[in-house]
Fold this sequence. Notes:
Strand order of the largest sheet: 9-8-19-20-21-18-22
Radius of gyration: 23 Å
Largest sheet: 7 strands, mixed
Mean pLDDT: 91
CATH superfamily of the largest domain: FAD/NAD(P)-binding domain
Amino acid sequence: MSTLQFDPNQLGYNADVIVIGAGVSGLVATWRLVREGVDVILLEAKDRVGGRISSGTFNGETYDLGARWIRSTATQTHQLAHELGIQFVPQYHTGESVIQLGKAQKRFKQRDPLFAPHLSLSYHSIIRKLNRLANELQQRNAKSVARIPILDAISFGAWLQQHCGNRTLRMLFTILTHVHFTAEPNEISFMYVLDQVQAFRGAQHVFALRPAHNQERIPGGMQRLVERLAQQLRTQIATDTPVLAIRQDEESVSAYSRGSSFRARYAIVATAPSIAAQIYHEPAMPAQRDALNQRVIMGRAITAILCYDYPFWRENKLSGFMLSHDGPASMVHDVSPTTSSEGALACLIVGDNASHWGAQPRGERLKALVSQLATWFGEETMAYRGMIERDWNSERWSRGTIGFMPPGSANFIHVMSTPVGRLHWAGSETANDWIGSIEGAVEAGERSAAEVISQLSNAGYLRRN
């Protein structure tokens, strides 16, 4: 017998579709559904929209504290931005950049850094091995399928230890893992890394030596994109409404929040995996879906923006870009406003460093970051005006950055986007391509909306404007 009794007197909304989570994916799904004449209610636990896109302000300027980059080749996101009247600007990378590997510093400009010949050859050898393994797995023949449990049983860190004898090169791949996964190599299933290689169309993109190359951002912050979407959906959005339980029957889906219930024909869950796992389901989720929810781990990251009177590093012919193995920040890049003369550097603290520095007082974090920046940008980094920051693992309704799979999870990856009854899934982790990115979130929103539109159309429920 059901323990969740639907009370029509508590019904907040009647709709064709309930979308749970107002991040990019949930907003895109809702927007597409509404434009097809579907009645939708979008439920968001936070007091704002955007999910893992968030911004902060300093001296009247807005800065991204969450996801901020869009690839110049991200066609779906560019099309969405065009429809919303939003333009992108290239990520600033003019001048000299650096990769810090222990005591060594490798400087580079517009091309990939020129490492010692043996190091460069080894890097490209690892990239080729990853691409070859990913391509073999994509064939899904008997031989490749038999290898999946073996590849999934070890971490990416363990695989690097076996196939990369050069300590400096392992340090480099650790940094690049920090940037892409916001996690440590030994936390991530090697099979999941190969899955990412497929999703990003090559290991050279997952472990790019110039992560800022060909990236774009929105002047005034990525929050502008989600706010523009939200403006189109004012009557559909209910914030401060966390979904605590979901009940399905043969005709409907009911979502339960604090003292409210919402009923619809279908639902799309577009939350971070860590939050989706906290929702109680009746009937219970299939065993594989439940196991998946339990296994997805959220990346650890703190984003800190140090603000200056002007971008002094540009005068010194520096790009503002730095990768570092020792940290605290694994990556630093220029996020100076385009509308003023002020300067700003974004510092990404991830993985074990995020756990360590997140437990320290704010003043200690700031002191450590300034000291790190001074090693490359000079003493002028001491003249900061202020710092704004966001610890994503302390966010109640995010609990981290990007979801990834630990060793032993490969058997569950394929159900990431598989509907369960009347319940469909969105969010960047459920994307087919560009998993964990803004482009992946847009793709997943579009895909989940298309799935539900097809279901409504086949059942004769779709009412077009």
